[in-house]
Amino acid sequence: MKEHGPTKWHECVANLINACMLEKVCSNDDILEKAAEMPYLIDVKQALTDVANNKHCRQAIISDGNDKFIQAFLRKNEMIDFFSAVETNVGSWENNNAETSFKIRYQSLKYGGHECKLRCPPNLCKTQVLKDILNRMKDANGKDAKRPRIVYVGDGHNDACPALQVLNENDVLLAREGKRCPNPNSVSGPQFDKNHDNAASGAFAILSTLEKAERRESMVPKCRVCPWNTGEELLSLVHGILS
Question: DSSP per residue over 49-74, as a string?
Answer without folding.
Answer: HHHHT-TT---EEEEEEEHHHHHHHH
